[in-house]
């Protein structure tokens, strides 16, 4: 069966490299015993473990989470591949789990497609951390529906050693509700992150951001659209891309403001850092505005580490590599600082540090 | 205010009164020679034969035409365009006037009247007509006027030639300087570059050729007026400007068209070449007929403009004021190959009623130390859409590149759209790339203040819009800056209040 994939000739995929996916789709997972120690953050909340897209019930503690067939509908070229068994979170009015929900996805080669649906009724709250490890192709579709005043903190750390991770997030944010999603790509796999979030009711807030760290021949690619459909919405996109060796990190962030979405406040900050002359950073901060009383601004920069800062640190006795790592960490920290919970944020920062520390 | 205008009206005052919104909406009744309607190899051969072109030129055109047949119209721009029937247009229309003019009397009086309406000063008209010894304007501007498909007159030729500058219609240049034209034609924008460039290469009818030799500072501003006059006619002009080492030239381009109900096609190609230390300043005031308030008629403006900054320290500066056309698809670009070469793009794009503009620039940095500046001001009103689309690319060998981009959008009313689509692709860590963009509207406070000082609402809007666009307007040569300021005001009439 041939896989219908978009090509780089398609404008929204011009920086992507999906050429490895057909082979991964054909491959079989190796399976075997999974060592999950060190994968959990120890938040003490509900947890799910997916191995090659299949729920490992023995090692999961679902709590309010549901597992099984998930009703999702997406026309996204990768997202639509995720159908069948997955997970759901359905919280009633004002409900909130006691602790952060953890979901770990382990892949042992091959391809896995898992759909998920998160529905929070009004004033409900949840915090979810997803961790991706192993190799192979992990393809995920997550649909989010937030009722009035609901709050969802979502964070994903992509730590697969090889293969490909593709995330598709589709969200709808209600009146005064808030969706914050932070994604860190700090593994050895190729990545495609797609998000389309609608700020569907007045006063909605949405933030999608993160950091893409790429080395070797890796390609990380994020394409995010935040669409304001109602007045007084606020959106933020803070992304940092770091590219070393022959790697490419690409960010396409878009804010759309519909005709009636007056008093929208949208901000984009995209910054790229090149650690080597053979690396590539691509940025596309896009605005599409149909309302006249809006505040939308974007800033984008690409460059190398500030030589004055490097010199200053050297003059204080730091070895060059350490100085470089310190400044790179500071560069990435902007995007990870949006994670509210200290334990989660620290885990993400540790991942980023591990990536930077592995720098030869 | 009435907007329906009999396009045959000849009296300028009556026309102005009837049609304040598009002052240049007159058409001129001229005896015109057309190529057979439609597009085929025969059309291409017809045009080439009319131009008495050498064999290589015809071959080049036919090759482009065959490539065009295999290409598809680009659909990535944010433009909503009805399918274009390329067989329903004339690809060549020439006023049947005497090709060379010995005195003012010999210039077709209708063409002269057109120049008057276009606002070309009377002194320049005399020079256009070749009347030597006429009182020349204090500040000289050499003019090449392209009427429908052909260049009707080029002025100041002798004076330019004394300086060594070649300023010709491109069909004359093909005949008189074939080696020079052949060396550069299609080198910046290859015939198969894109759909509209291929179409242009196949059927281009005229345009301007400029060559400024080594070390020469062109003694005057060069200018071309483009005018589409005949109905159902596409205009496909091609401009080629080569500035040799250390040369400097400033070039102005103005465009108008009569009001017609059907859409007319304009697909131009502009190629600029700057060698070591050369500088080209290219300014455009584009005021093609934008269509009426319902979006009926207007020019489809598909233009490929590109500059090759081949030499070290070469510089190309694009300045454009885009107020006309129903649809604009235009990305004046710089390929910065030379070390320390400089590219600049200053743009004001105004859209009103149902106009759609998708415009911006590409800065391709291949040379070490190359720099570029992009300042884009988009103003949307009515039910129009205004898109900035740009690319800044830094190649792996381009050390120490700098780019600064600023795109500001101003929205007048809540039925229009402003879009920003910047692409940034960087492959060298020593690059410093900065991009900023804002979107705003005219605040009630600003309007109130200006009105309280005695300005009426429209003048207040014009004042604020001119302030918004000031950074770009001040890049224009003086004559154009005044015209552009007036144009901004006229284009936005009736959009507020």
Number of domains of chain B: 1
The chain-level mean pLDDT of chain A equals: 92
Q: Strand share of the residues of chain B?
A: 25-35%
Give the helix/strand class of chain A: mainly beta
Stretches with pLDDT under 50, minimum 5 residues of chain A: none
The secondary structure category of chain B is alpha/beta
Shape of chain A: globular
- Tally the helices of chain B: 13
**Intertermini distance of chain B:** 15 Å
- The level of helicity of chain A is 10-25%
Multimeric status of the protein: heterodimer
Task: Write a concise keyword list for the protein shown above.
heterodimer, A: 360 residues, mainly beta, 17-stranded mixed beta sheet, 4 helices, 17 strands, B: 497 residues, alpha/beta, 10-stranded mixed beta sheet, 6-stranded parallel beta barrel, 24% helix, disordered N terminus, SUF_FeS_clus_asmbl_SufBD_core (chain A), SUF_FeS_clus_asmbl_SufBD_sf (chain A), Fe-S_cluster_assembly_SufBD (chain A)
Secondary-structure map with pairings?
The complex is a heterodimer of chains A (360) and B (497).
Chain A: H1 21-26, E1 47-51, E2 54-55, E3 65-70, E4 84-91, E5 101-120, E6 125-146, E7 151-158, E8 164-173, E9 178-185, E10 190-199, E11 205-214, E12 219-228, E13 234-243, E14 248-257, E15 265-274, E16 280-289, E17 295-303, H2 307-315, H3 320-336, H4 342-357
Parallel strand pairs in A: 1-5, 4-5, 5-6, 6-7, 6-8, 7-9, 8-10, 9-11, 10-12, 11-13, 12-14, 13-15, 14-16, 15-17
Antiparallel strand pairs in A: 1-2, 3-4
Chain B: H1 12-18, E1 32-34, H2 41-50, H3 55-70, E2 93-95, H4 109-118, H5 122-128, E3 141-147, E4 150-154, H6 157-163, E5 166-169, H7 170-176, H8 178-184, H9 195-203, E6 208-212, E7 221-227, E8 238-243, E9 248-256, E10 263-274, E11 279-286, E12 298-309, E13 315-322, E14 327-330, E15 333-336, E16 342-351, E17 356-359, E18 362-365, E19 371-380, E20 385-394, E21 402-411, E22 417-426, E23 432-441, H10 444-452, H11 457-468, H12 470-473, H13 478-491
Parallel strand pairs in B: 3-7, 6-8, 7-9, 8-10, 9-11, 10-12, 11-13, 12-14, 12-15, 13-16, 14-17, 15-18, 16-19, 17-20, 18-20, 19-21, 20-22, 21-23
Antiparallel strand pairs in B: 1-2, 3-4, 5-6
Helix pairs in contact in B: 2-3, 3-9, 7-8, 10-11, 11-13
Domain SUF system FeS cluster assembly SufBD N-terminal (chain B): 162-217
Protein name (chain B): Iron-regulated ABC transporter membrane component SufB
Family (chain B): Belongs to the iron-sulfur cluster assembly SufBD family.
